[in-house]
Amino acid sequence: MGDSSMTMIEADGLSKYYGSFMAIKDISFSIPKGQIVAFLGPNGAGKSTTMKILSGFLAASKGKAVIAGLDVRDERLEAVKKLGYLPENGPLYNDMTPMELLRFFGEVRGYKNHKLDERIDYVTDLCALQQVLEKPISKLSRGYRQRVGLAQALLHDPEVLIMDEPTAGLDPNQIRDFRTNISKLGEAKTILISTHILQEVEAVAQRVLLINEGRLVFDGSMTELKQDGSIEKAFYNLTGYGKERSVHNEEGGEV
Predict the structure, then answer these.
(1) Domains of the chain, residue spans
(2) What is the pLDDT of residues 20-74, one digit of tens each?
(3) Cα-trace Rg, the chain
(4) pTM of the predicted model, to two decimals?
(5) Can you tell me whether residue 79 is helix, strand or coil?
(6) CA dist 186 to 22, 36, 167, 171, 232, Å?
(7) Residue 194 has pLDDT above 80, yes or no
(8) Of 139, 145, 151, 207, which Cα lies nearest the Cα of 170?
(9) 30-to-34, 85, 147, 195 alpha-carbon distances in Å
(10) Calpha distance 175→147 (Å, rounded)
(11) What is the pLDDT of residues 71-119, one digit of tens each?
(12) How far apart, in whole angstroms, are the C-alpha atoms of residue 215 and residue 144?
């Protein structure tokens, strides 16, 4: 696993504003090599915004995002080589098959011949895509589309994985397989995973970050989170369940 003290994901005072609307405010945390971290929060809390900034898809209004020691703003191309990013409902090329998509992304990343075939075989097996490799992506179920997205994110064997709602649309068997894969990947990679499924957090995460109304309100272990009862109770208490809050940014999407 290497040096487990090495910081692989860092948010340093991240803030993002859309006009006068505050999506996130002064978010700071660091994640060391080999840790699986769950990122929790209600809809509109700021999870997706934070993940997009960490992944280089969105610029912060203030603060710094660092992946594997590389400043995402100033060294974006080098940083994304270290990163696998699976956005929620990530864009796929619907007129391609999964095989065509994986081959296209592999070639873009510089893989050729045997090495490209080897990487495609690995992610195809890991994500159980054998049965749909030659079907148009437009014809695939949401669960299979999610698996294609994950395979693409893993294709270049990144050191860091950031995944936004990766089990959305998966059935219980697929979710179980996904948990097994994440635990296996976590032996060698650093993983930040956003989810609404609290049982999923207990199954895979070593640490929990909880965000509410754009601010980080908890950073600790599962044991610390549950010290006053269940994870559900802690979630409700920390997010002020029942409070009125704004859940959409100016672009109309979840933040």
Answers:
(1) 1-70+159-170+188-195+216-255, 91-157
(2) 999 999 999 999 999 999 999 988 899 999 999 999 999 999 999 999 999 999 9
(3) 18
(4) 0.85
(5) helix
(6) 33, 6, 16, 22, 25
(7) yes
(8) 145
(9) 12, 17, 28, 19
(10) 11
(11) 999 999 999 899 999 887 767 899 999 999 999 999 998 999 999 999 9
(12) 33
37 contact partners, CB below 8 Å, separation of at least 6: 9, 31, 191, 192, 193, 205, 206, 207, 208, 209
CA distance 151 to 130: 12
Total Cβ atoms within 10 A of residue 20: 6
- What's 229's DSSP letter? S
Condensed to tens digits (0 to 9), the pLDDT of residues 205-221 reads 999 999 999 999 999 99
Cα three-residue angle 211-216-219, rounded to 5 degrees: 95
Q: What is the CATH number that goes with domain 1-70+159-170+188-195+216-255?
A: 3.40.50.300
Q: Distance of alpha carbon 16 from its chain centroid, rounded?
A: 18
As given in the structure block, the two tokens for residue 126 are 């890991």
Residue pair 209/39 in contact (Cβ under 8 Å)? The answer is yes
Q: Are strands 62-67 and 21-32 parallel, antiparallel or unpaired?
A: unpaired
